[in-house]
Write a structure and sequence with these properties.
The structure is a homodimer. Chain A is mainly alpha-helical. The first copy, chain A, folds into two domains: 190 residues, Transcription Regulator spoIIAA; 375 residues, no CATH class. Helices cover 61% and strands 4% of the residues of chain A. Chain A has a six-stranded mixed β-sheet. In chain A, strand 3, helix 22 and strand 4 form a beta-alpha-beta unit. In chain A, helix 5 packs parallel to helix 8 and helix 9 crosses helix 14. Chains A and B meet through helix 2, helix 10, helix 19, helix 20 and helix 21 of A and helix 2, helix 10, helix 19, helix 20 and helix 21 of B. Chains A, B: InterPro entries: SLC26A/SulP_dom, SLC26A/SulP_fam, STAS_dom, STAS_dom_sf.
């Protein structure tokens, strides 16, 4: 008869606090709570509780139109900053809109239209302070290639816009899966790619690749070396230098903040005057040229819902919608991280949807929060979505009266503005910081960066997200098990790896599992627990006194368990029984305890072998070891029972 | 000046045990350890350590050929059981092999060949005791449909077999993702499907659907009601009754175990004699009929590596290989669960690979561990892989001499044997048990069951696996946060939900996070933590004395953190600072502490605000509250410092 039998016939001293099993909850009530916790963690209706009816209405309106929340607190100082930022991004929006519209095979002016209506809507409904609304290069390129396959570019290109908003539903889930590391890598990569694209303007090239990857861009540039324009490159270099110096000064001395803020606008004015007076447009400096005047014509009647190309339009709408939303939310999040505020994914999705529906009826094409424009907005010191209103008004004035003034704006100046904004956003130090804190996050970051630079923005994002999810699964499949030891002169037990001065308790092995026990790790954990026990037995197989008699599992780190997990614990229990070792559980959580109880495992282990703390479990085991060694079990037990 | 400022200027009493930050490990060493822990958790080379050379060789051989491990312990009693089981499954293997080969559009005899060579190899190399090797219906059907599209069925159908083994590599990862619940549902579903298929034999039908789903099978049966054969149905009913009674008796009285074991063989003999003497084959009872004599011809020379259909063969090989391996390992695992032993996924994959390579050279087609045959083997009381050897030898003898004897075996008897084995494997009680323990596992189980019954075996498995993985992701994205309270008369702090008799500590909120903090949950946790704090402040905003001044985070359940997580904690810290609340950390693990330290968060919170236990953290906070309330901070601090 082994030791286990002796132990099983004894009772443990019940002088310890009992472990509580929570009362079972009705199934549907717990289901309701779980669902609410899962989908509405911030309890958005909480603020409506116990409020009078008019207040409820006001709060509801504030939820849908965040402008109502911040407008009352808006100050003159904020407006000054937003005015400068708004004018700056407006000066960017014009050439950017034109060039992206060209990328999408649309009439150039529709790029300008897209910078008028959507920003106004976003300003009222969006929750980001820094986002500047406009068209993006990737979505423009995709539009051209997807619609171009089947439809002539002149035919109803506004149709698919209307459909883009349906895609916002599907894109929502991406938001949770963008990690800090992904965003750092993605931003660096996007900044690199956008900067490289500006080489077209700076070198004064007429033809350029539509791909964004490094290899294509380099090939495109070096294949037309004879077309490089030194006049353009010199002008670009000078303006870039000016912009960088302005930013450097602003950073060094807080009083000079205005230098950086007005630099882009100054560059545009100086550049335009320079070209106007020197007629440099005839000497290799490209300028924006003639723009049509007048506001957005209505296009609601042009939407071709009965066209045979509707399926193509729907597909294009969904895919570009997902890409645009993903970029917009990634950009919005990145900048909110800098300024330490929080943007609401739900509100953003609503804002993007409405903004694109309205856009599709007013001759705009798909808009979101483009990275470059938002970066300029942020660097120009914007304070709220008012900068979008200023930009929209500036674009409106431009459309109405000022298009001739931009005739002579050199494209190279706009390229310089974009490059200088980008250079500030490749964060070497943030990437190194990731390496210091978490090697895996660094890997994710580098994957996002090189994916974006060498493949494309989508591929970079997708690879980084997949890698991040892989890490989660890896964590779940291979959780850590820790051996605990006693911290001297206390009843505290902690990992012997972390606290090397802890003492082993002879005859007792204390293990802590650091993850929920699910089917993905139950096989692994069985192997690992048995390996710890084997190793422990190898160590101390000399005398009977120090022979391993108890294994205590610290369940404090086990948040949940499924039926594969309870089966695994049952298997471990019966293996230990066969070897004459007793399984003891310490500090199980409510959920886990409920399931162990339902699985009858609590009865099999014996409820008296469940303890509130590891300290109490060790005390009880030590009592039993003394007991069986001194062969006075009965009198001991009686004494202990008397104590209770 | 808020309270936070006062608190920040004070120092905490350092009379508590320090929290240890583990020393940094060299990067490549920790990488090596992580990789080893991930891919070789059971440390298979451990047994080789410190062993003399010959012993190492012996252990190595045992690893590849498990037969060397168990053969020396093999006893005569085991052999008796295996002999009966082997003969029983041999009597099944013959009609099963023939019908499945027909499903695959292969010559009927190749089904018999496949029950001769592969089982011999599996017996030597496999690690399951219960698995009976043979062909499976699903893979047979898929072979026919995939190869049939491009290749004439008579043309080199053995080729793709050779390629199946390459698929085993890719299939390996599936193994970890089959949960207990999935297996219960999958087995029940497969048993239902296989039983339904037997209606063909029992009703004496000649034509039958190739689909396995309930709807197709029912349509197939009721569309040919006029072909139902009552003679066959009556005979089937009688044998099924006999088999079920035999099993019932064996279960009731242990001494009658042999009744169930010999029943299938007896049924085959009685059925064959009955048909032979009554010439029932002329009255609607289908029999196996004439079989070609002679052993497997070699087919190694027939493998058509230079054929133009090689890509088709490779594709078929990979897909059927994955399906076969998944079914085989799922079946092996299920039965090892019953008998409470462990099968080694690596060994199984090696065995399946070698067995199919050898099979492809000896006129066999793809083999694995079919569910029906394994179930019969298990029910017949097999003890080891020797039953496979017996079956192989029996099939060999059959191929050589006995094919005429099986001429008169009625197919309805074989159907009855299969159905009676299946009925024992639909585990209502296990499914109900799942409902008791874990509702989500029950859902997974039902998904697997209905997926298999109403769609197909693959779809059922895939749906169940996807649902299980979704649960993991859901756990990660929405971890629980618990509020802790003090257990009276102790320094122990536990969840107030689980232990309702705990006391709140005035002015202090203690939160426990029950999962690693990763990018998927960092947004959620920020929202949730701030909501707890808001709710706590709403509760106790009356007097300054009970005002919330400290938030203690119990980090004991946080196994890991990434950079999104450290940023989140930083944001929480600065939000709390703004509100005049101090953030305190208790019991952080080694990994987490390292990362918090690298992220400079430890310095920002202040190392003196990290405690080994929640109890110590509360003590320190209480000391500080007393302090600031009694306005004697300086003298108090001095007193405390003197104590250190």
């Amino acid at each position: 008869m082994g030791n286990a039998d002796i132990i099983d016939q004894q009772e443990t001293p019940r002088c310890f606090a009992a472990v509580a099993i929570p009362a079972p909850q009705p199934f549907f009530e717990s289901l309701k709570n779980d669902l609410k916790e899962t989908f509405l963690p911030d309890d958005p209706l909480r603020q409506f509780k116990n409020q009078p009816q008019p207040r409820k209405l006001a709060l509801g309106l504030q939820y849908v139109f965040p402008i109502l929340e911040w407008a009352p607190r808006y100050s003159l100082n904020f407006f000054k900053a937003d005015l400068i930022a708004g004018i700056t991004i407006a000066s960017l929006a014009i050439p950017q809109g034109i060039s992206y519209a060209k990328l999408a095979n649309l009439p150039p002016i529709s790029g300008l239209y897209s910078s008028f209506v959507p920003p106004l809507i976003y300003a009222v409904m969006g929750s980001s302070r820094d986002l500047a609304v406009g068209t993006i290069a990737v979505a423009s390129l995709m539009t051209a290639s997807m619609l171009g396959k089947e439809v002539n570019a002149t035919e109803n290109p506004t149709l698919y816009l209307h459909l883009a908003f349906t895609a916002t539903f599907f894109a929502g889930f991406i938001v949770d899966y963008l990690s800090h590391a992904t965003i750092v890598g993605f931003m660096g990569g996007a900044a690199t790619v956008v900067s490289l694209q500006q080489l077209k303007g700076i070198l004064g090239l007429k033809h350029f690749t539509q791909s964004t990857d490094l290899v294509s861009v380099m090939r495109s540039i070096f294949s037309q070396m004879q077309q490089w324009r030194w006049e353009s490159a010199v002008l670009g270099g000078i303006f870039l230098f000016y912009l960088l110096v302005a930013r450097y000064c602003s950073k060094k001395r807080a009083k000079l903040f205005w230098m950086s803020a007005v630099a882009p606008l100054m560059s545009v004015i100086i550049g335009s005057l320079l070209v106007y007076f020197t007629h440099a447009e005839k000497h290799g400096i490209q300028v924006i040229g003639k723009l049509k005047e007048g506001l957005n014509p209505l296009s609601a009647m042009d939407l071709a819902f009965r066209s045979e190309y509707l399926p193509t339009a729907i597909k294009t709408g969904i895919i570009t919608g997902v890409v645009a939303l993903a970029e917009g939310i990634a950009v919005g999040r990145s900048f909110s991280m800098f300024s330490n505020y929080h943007i609401d994914g739900n509100k953003e999705m609503i804002a993007y949807g409405i903004m694109n529906i309205a856009g599709s009826c007013t001759s705009c094409y798909i808009t979101t929060g483009p990275f470059s424009r938002t970066a300029v907005n942020f660097n120009a010191g914007c304070k709220s979505a008012v900068s979008n209103i200023v930009m929209a008004l500036a674009v409106m004035l431009t459309l109405l009266f000022l298009t001739p003034l931009f005739h002579y704006t050199p494209i190279v100046v706009l390229s310089s503005i974009i490059v200088s904004a980008m250079l500030g956003l490749i964060e070497y130090s943030a990437a190194l910081h990731l390496w210091d804190i978490d090697k895996f996050d660094f890997l994710v970051c580098m994957t996002a960066y090189f994916g974006v630079v060498f493949c494309s923005i989508e591929i970079g994002l997708i690879l980084a997200v997949l890698l991040s999810v892989l890490r989660l699964l890896l964590f779940m499949t291979r959780p850590r098990t820790l051996v605990l030891g006693n911290i001297p002169d206390s009843k505290i037990y902690r990992s012997i790896d972390q606290y090397p001065n802890t003492d082993n308790v002879s005859g007792i092995l204390i293990l802590k599992i650091d993850a929920p026990i699910y089917f993905v790790n139950s096989s692994y954990l069985r192997e690992r627990i048995l390996r710890w026990i084997n190793e422990e037995e190898d160590k101390q197989n000399s005398s009977d006194k120090s022979r391993l008699k108890y294994v205590i599992l610290d369940m404090g780190g086990i948040a949940d368990i499924d039926t594969s997990g309870t089966s695994m614990l049952e298997e471990v229990k019966s293996t230990l029984d066969r070897r004459g070792i007793k399984l003891v559980m310490a500090n199980p959580g409510g959920e886990v305890l409920k399931k162990l109880n339902n699985a009858k495992l609590m009865a099999k282990v014996g409820q008296e072998w469940f303890f509130l703390t590891v300290g109490e479990a060790v005390e009880a085991c030590n009592l039993m070891i003394h007991n069986s060694v001194s062969h006075q079990s009965e009198s001991w037990i009686n004494n202990v029972i008397d104590l209770v």
